[in-house]
Design brief:
Blueprint: E1 2-6, H1 11-22, E2 27-31, H2 32-35, H3 41-48, H4 50-53, H5 59-62, H6 66-69, H7 74-83, E3 92-96, E4 102-106, H8 110-117
Parallel strand pairs: 1-2
Antiparallel strand pairs: 1-3, 3-4
Length: 118
């Protein structure tokens, strides 16, 4: 089963959910704020890199003190994402496809999602 991780009122998460529904793909929802940051964040960082998962473009990251943004590495980025879940790039689609293949997609790009879930 696939899980779409994010923040429900995020426009990109809404687009991704609509895309999944239109494609007939079921996915559970995991709200970073309500349900917490999943333990799998460590695995995601190991698979994709913290640079991919850290949302530097968002208002939450931009509002951080410069000292919190300077000298980031994997450990500091993980701590930051755990402390401020809105700094995790959204959505993250993770889990198993119907055919048993594993999926880990970060951010919503319809072409990449179609290729991975096709």
């Amino acid at each position: 089963m696939l899980t779409i991780h994010g923040i429900p009122n995020c426009d990109t998460v809404k687009k991704a959910r609509a895309w999944l529904a239109a494609a007939g793909i079921e996915a559970r929802s995991h709200d970073f704020r309500k349900d917490g940051v999943p333990a799998a964040l460590d695995d995601w960082v190991a698979a994709k890199g913290w640079e991919v998962l850290l949302n530097r473009a968002g208002t939450t990251f931009r509002a951080l003190p410069d000292a919190d943004k300077a000298g980031l590495d994997a450990d500091r980025a993980l701590a930051l994402m755990r402390a401020a879940p809105a700094t995790i790039k959204r959505p993250v689609l993770a889990g198993a496809r119907a055919d048993g293949g594993l999926v880990l997609l970060v951010g919503f790009k319809p072409e990449a999602w179609a290729a991975a879930l096709g």
